[in-house]
Structures are given as structure tokens and as C-alpha cells.
Amino acid sequence: MDKIIETPLTEEKVKNLNAGDNVFISGIIYTARDAAHKRLIDLLDKGESLPMEIRDQIIYYVGPTPAKPGNPIGSAGPTTSYRMDSFTPKLLDIGLKGMIGKGIRSNEVIESMKKNKAVYFGAIGGAAALIGKSIIHSEIIAYEDLGSEAIRKLEVKNLPVVVVIDSKGNNLYELGQNNYLKASKL
């Protein structure tokens, strides 16, 4: 089912998303990969503030290419998500509601998503240029020294994603495989 959501991503919106839903996201999202995640966790461990509000937000695991003249960003394809798994539960515990990436997540992350009522979206790998067209504004807000891995605040319009793991723990990777195996036995 196709769904359109505006950020912030509240718990009410999350509970209406199911594994397999096609979703178009508009509003503000943030980017961060593993180096930035490590810095965020280090700040939390020191009791310091994060460079952005994390509650009810979405983090897109992406290291975009430089913008061409006249564009807000270059290609913006997803990064493999398990690289953030050791950091993710702590961010979910303080209110992160959505993540966008590609690939599987650990059981620890899935359990934390269920506990914190969060969702994991998949973006299409290999469609980085297309995804980049959904980004209408980009600004670096932290860790500029990380280059493409700096934290960016993005404004997106109709960013296409798929719910891979919903807040109940339903996992499209497992559901899809099970459905395929059932169909192949017919």
C-alpha cells in the first residue's frame, strides 16, 4: 500500500506503517553514517547535547556525492545499515523513530525498534541519482570535517522508500522469502 507521510515521524504515524508499504516522505530528515553515529554516541555518553533534535526524527544512512551546480545535493544512495547497528539502540531509546538504509538489521536493533515503536525504511540501492532528485535542500549541520559523512539536514519531497521492518518487528526480508518459498511449492 502507498502511504504519504510528513515529518516529524510521530509514534502515531509509525504504528500505521507496515512491512511492505511503499512510503513517500516529505519534510526534514537527517543524514548520518557510522563515523557521525560514533560521535553522536560519544556526546550522549558524556551527557552532552546532540547537534540536532533526535526525537521523532528520521536518519538516512547516506554519504551523498558533491552537488552539481544548481542542485542541492549529488547522488544520494543508501549505505548498508548494519554498520550503524551498534549505535542505533541508544538513539532509538532517546526518541529516534525512523531510519533509512539498505540491508538487514541485527536482532538487537529490531528488538529496540519494537520497544521504542520505530520503523526501518529501505531505499533502493543503485537509484542514487533518482533519490537525489527528491532532496530539495541540504545543509551541513555537524561534523563538516567528515566530508560526505557529515551530518546534513535535508528537506525532502516525496522521497520513495519501502517499510522493511515495522514497529511490530515484521520484516519484509523474511516475509518476502517465506512468501516466495510457499509459492515455489505450488
TrEMBL record:
Name assigned to this protein: Fumarate hydratase subunit beta
Database matches in Gene3D superfamilies: Fe-S hydro-lyase, tartrate dehydratase beta-type, catalytic domain (3.20.130.10)
EC code: 4.2.1.2
Alphabetical list of PANTHER family matching this protein: L(+)-TARTRATE DEHYDRATASE SUBUNIT BETA, L(+)-TARTRATE DEHYDRATASE SUBUNIT BETA-RELATED
Enzyme class: lyase
GO molecular function: fumarate hydratase activity
Keywords: Lyase
Organism for this UniProt entry: Clostridium algifaecis
Residue ranges constituting the Fe-S hydro-lyase tartrate dehydratase beta-type catalytic domain according to the UniProt record: 6-174
